Amino acid sequence: MMKNDKKTTVLITGAGSGMGLHTARTLATAGYMVYAGVRDPNGRNTEKSQNLLKELNGAEKNIEIVDLDILQDNSCRNAADQIVAQHESIDVVIHNAAHLYIGFSEAFEPEQLASSLNTNLIGAHRLNRAVLPHMRKEGKGLILYVGSGITNVTAPFMAPYVVGKAALDALAENTAYEISQFGVETTILMPGVYMDDTLHFAAAEFPHDEKVLKDYTRLEKDYDNYEPGLRNLFRFGDAPIQSVADKIAEILALPAGQRPLRDTVDFSDWVAEPGNGVREALTERAFRIMGYSHLLRVKY
Q1: Average pLDDT, the chain
Q2: Burial of 76 (0-12, 13-18, 19+ CB in 10 A)
């Protein structure tokens, strides 16, 4: 655990299912004080809230469900203020909330693309604006983004999601260079394909423009092969979703200053690492030429 005189506080978005749920339980069991963000936890998501509190093995005192809607500024600010009021500081924020879109690009209405950006990108920015003032004041903290390997190797038939995740990646990296000078670290975790034990695919949104969809019949065979095609990537066994939570716990346990800007957890042979290596080398070169090398290092 990050070294502290008190419990390290962790705020997780989208903690009601999938990666977020597993991460909340894993960190609570490890002794972190987890604030599990769930939208309307006592209403439409009561079942998710109850499920989140199951199987904690005595760690119930280390987790608190917080009503968090990343689409609302007030909700983000209230969550941040609640944590600071109870624990004096926010140590870690994990941007996990996301929404998947599957279908032909042209058939997604513009409003659907905007909706994807609102959930997969702008929501993280809203929450950053709520928590970063507290982190900058403390001169420490970690912002961890659950991104995706598709920002290096794109995937077909999910344009709004890919656009949202690519935009999140850009936001995360650009913000990282600035908040690093206030002692705040950034890690962008890039999972590969995870298809089981998550509501990601079950809750996916599809194109609304039925007229355009009718013009894409020639691609129906490719579209119908979407799930089997993804599963072909699992050449070395299935992807246990708990592995994402374990990787996050591993990153948090590293000493301040030793956490990577990017990391991966991938059982799907998506192979994002080579792209990360090239990106890192080119960034270091360009920043050195511009005189910005110091922005690549966290200032304590």
Answers
A1: 93
A2: buried
* Calculated CA dihedral for residues 29, 34, 35, 37, nearest 10 degrees: -60
Cβ-proximal residues to 265 (8 Å cutoff; 6+ apart), any chain: 189, 190, 191, 192, 243, 244, 247
Element (H, E) at 22: helix 18-29
Which strand (E) or helix (H) includes residue 107?
none
Rg of the chain (C-alpha set): 19
CB 80 within 8 A of CB 90: yes
Please answer whether residues 36 and 68 qualify as being in contact, where contact means their C-beta atoms are separated by less than 8 angstroms: no
User: 159-179 and 123-138 are packed helices; what angle lies between their axes, rounded to 10 degrees?
Assistant: 20
Q: What angle do CA 84, 85, 90 make, to 5 degrees?
A: 10
Range with the poorest average pLDDT among 83-97, 227-241, 255-269: 227-241
Strands 9-12 and 33-38: parallel
- 161-175 average pLDDT score: 97
Using DSSP bridges, classify how beta strands 262-265 and 184-191 pair: parallel, antiparallel or unpaired.
parallel
* HEC secondary structure over 147-183: CCHHHCCCCCCEHHHHHHHHHHHHHHHHHHHHHHHHC
Q: Give the separation between CA 154 and CA 144, rounded to whole angstroms.
A: 22
pLDDT digits (tens, 9 = 90+) for 73-122: 999 999 999 999 999 999 999 999 999 999 999 999 999 999 999 999 99
Q: Can you give the pLDDT at residue 3?
A: 42
At 234, the pLDDT band (50, 70, 90 cuts) reads: confident
Work out the average pLDDT over 123-131. 98
Its pTM stands at 0.94
Residue 204 CB contacts under 8 Å (≥ 6 apart), including other chains? 100, 101, 102
The beta-strand segments (E) located in the chain are 9-12, 33-38, 63-67, 92-95, 141-146, 184-191, 262-265
